[in-house]
Design a protein that fits this description.
- 43% of the residues are buried.
- By secondary structure, the chain is of the alpha/beta class.
- The mean pLDDT is 96.
- The protein folds into two domains: 3-135 and 328-344, NAD(P)-binding Rossmann-like Domain (Rossmann fold); 141-307, no CATH class.
- It has ten helices and 15 strands.
- The strands form three sheets. It has a seven-stranded parallel beta sheet, sandwiched between helices. Strands 8-11-12-7-13-14 form a six-stranded mixed beta sheet, with helices on one face.
Length: 355
């Protein structure tokens, strides 16, 4: 059986996914929704730089959602555009389509989402008898799927620490990174200096790990630090002046029995030489997802994603993020109406991927 998918969004993640769906035996592209007038009416092949497909992109949401399909794969803008995303997601769910998403990472752990937002999604699921799963992008699977899988191999867990390393200088969503405090003067206040914000963004997978382990998070500790560039430097997507933030570390600690036992960490560098004294990945100069578990046994896993043609880590990682939710579509379609999380899903082995 091929699952028919309406793909909503042809940005960095959506385009990467679409290139892999054009000839996929397990998924069929039923329609493609775009946001820009310049793409409307274009053949999907022209948008992706591949041969013509016969699939025309549209901005007509009502028309696209009326197409016979099993699910909508939503690759919208980041969570800074939450209201636009919520309107689109609820419209898709009300239309009777199951929905998988990468834009609203807070829904990775539904119980941690603002109750007003959660009720809007739940109401749309009830109206459309549909199911919703968000794999997020940051947070993403490196903060829930990877550690949860490895925790299942342990007899005792004393501490679990996830770290995402990325090359921020080539990351396509510079808006979100700059919004957090990167590539801006370190003398400027940083958004992540606001108490509670880090927990609201990354607390979902942290509390999910605690739930899986059967422990209570007593409190969270938020550590944010920035590293200033000592000189002006051009990077692929911009320029740093002396004193601008060339690297930052975002560390969220979950306190269990008075100690930091569950840690979600991010280290982003605008250029390779930045913050030389900070931790680095072992398998790549800039990109990796690392999971370190102290217990019985000790476990350390480092995973690197790379584009098959260019080796680009951002493209490889974003494609993996998108395919994570696409490969979840059969399980989401089979689920009872409502919001599901990683804890609700079975093993997703990428059926049909060897073709």
């Amino acid at each position: 059986m091929a699952y028919r998918i309406i793909v909503w969004g042809t940005g960095f993640v959506g385009s990467a996914v679409l290139r892999n769906l054009v000839a996929h035996p397990h998924f069929e592209i039923a329609a493609v929704l775009v946001n820009s007038a310049e793409k409307e009416g274009l053949d999907l092949g022209e948008i992706l730089g591949i041969p013509e497909t016969g699939i025309r992109a549209t901005r007509d949401i009502e028309e696209a959602l009326a197409v016979d399909a099993d699910a909508v794969a939503y690759f919208g803008p980041n969570a800074m555009h939450a209201e636009a995303n919520m309107q689109n997601l609820t419209a898709a769910l009300r239309s009777g389509n199951n929905v998988v998403d990468t834009s609203m990472g807070g829904f990775q752990n539904p119980v941690r989402v603002d109750p007003t937002l959660r009720e809007r999604i739940e109401e749309a699921c009830r109206e459309g008898a549909s199911s919703f799963f968000s794999g997020g992008i940051d947070p993403g699977f490196g903060n829930d799927l990877f550690p949860l899988t490895l925790l299942g191999l342990c007899g005792r867990v004393d501490r679990v620490h996830t770290t995402e390393f990325i090359d921020a200088g080539t990351y396509p969503d510079q808006e979100s990174l700059m919004g957090l405090g990167l590539a801006r003067p370190t003398s400027d206040p940083a958004l992540l200096d606001n108490a509670g914000l880090m927990t609201s963004i990354w607390g979902g997978p942290l509390y999910m790990m605690a739930e899986a382990l059967g422990v209570e998070i007593e409190s969270t500790v938020e550590n944010y630090r920035r590293w200033a560039s000592p000189e002006a430097i051009d990077f692929p997507l911009g320029r740093l002046e002396p004193g601008d933030c060339a690297a930052h570390q975002i560390e969220l600690q979950g306190i269990v029995n008075g100690k930091p036992r569950i840690i979600v960490d991010h280290i982003h560098r605008v250029y390779e030489e930045a913050a030389p004294e900070w931790p680095r990945p072992q398998l790549h100069v800039a990109h990796a997802n690392r999971i370190a578990i102290k217990g019985s046994p000790n476990v350390e896993q480092e995973t690197v994603f790379a584009d098959e043609h260019t080796g680009d880590g951002n493209l490889g990682g974003c494609l993996a993020t998108g395919m994570r939710v696409v490969n979840a579509i059969p399980a989401v379609c089979a689920a009872e109406p409502g919001i599901v999380s990683t804890l609700d899903l079975p093993l997703l082995a990428g059926r049909g991927g060897m073709h």
